[in-house]
Amino acid sequence: MKRIMLIGTMMAALMAGGCVTLVDQASMARQQADWESLCADTQRLNERINGLQLEQQALTREIEALRRAPREDLATRNRLDTMERQLVAMNAARESDRREIVTELSRKVATIVGGSSGGGSSGRGGSSSSDTGYEHVVKSGETLSAIAAAYKSSISSIKRANHLSSDMVRVGQKLFIPQR
Fold first, then answer.
1. What is the C-alpha separation between 60 and 21, in angstroms, rounded?
2. Which is deepest, 12, 53, 54, 113, by most CB within 10 Å?
3. 139-145 contacts: CB < 8 A, separation 24 or more?
4. What is the pLDDT of residues 52-94, one digit of tens each?
């Protein structure tokens, strides 16, 4: 019975108000504004996406450049290391050649000086234990101890070879440095 009353009430309401559907103008305006707002938001998001894509492309290019750079630096570093090793080897060879030349020249000078003067006035003392060595010209600021250290010799052997009575040397003085 309650069902019948409810149906009856609904029928009466429909007849009184009719079946005409009216669209609320305010509701339509709100929907239009919402639609326009969504379109503007979509446009802003698309612009933001485009900006982010450009930024991503720039970063990708930068990363690629950075990935290539260490290889170039490594290649340059390796080349410099190789050149430095070659330079060290060349300097060592040059020093070895220099010592060999000085030794050979010292021998020849000793032979020439020894042969022409009877062996007594070669500039080296007869008590020197070596006939080979180096000739050194004293430069400004050099001391006998520094010269001895440079040639890995002793002060006393240089003094004996050059008939020096003191440790004093003068600029331009030629010294025979006996080889140990």
1. 59
2. 113
3. 139/171, 140/171, 142/169, 143/167, 143/169, 144/168, 144/169
4. 888 888 888 888 877 776 666 788 888 888 888 888 888 788 8
* Structural domain boundaries, residue 51: 46-121
Question: Same structural domain for residues 151 and 105?
Answer: no
* Residue 137, strand partner residues: 174
Which secondary-structure segment (H or E) carries 42?
helix 25-117
H or E segment and range at residue 178: strand 174-178
- 117 and 133 within one domain: no
By the 8 A CB rule, do 135 and 103 touch? Answer: no
Task: For residue 142, give the 3-state DSSP assignment.
Answer: coil
Tell me: pLDDT of 18 over 90. Answer: no
pTM of full prediction above 0.85: no
β partners of residue 174? 137
Q: How far apart are CA 55 and CA 134, in angstroms?
A: 71
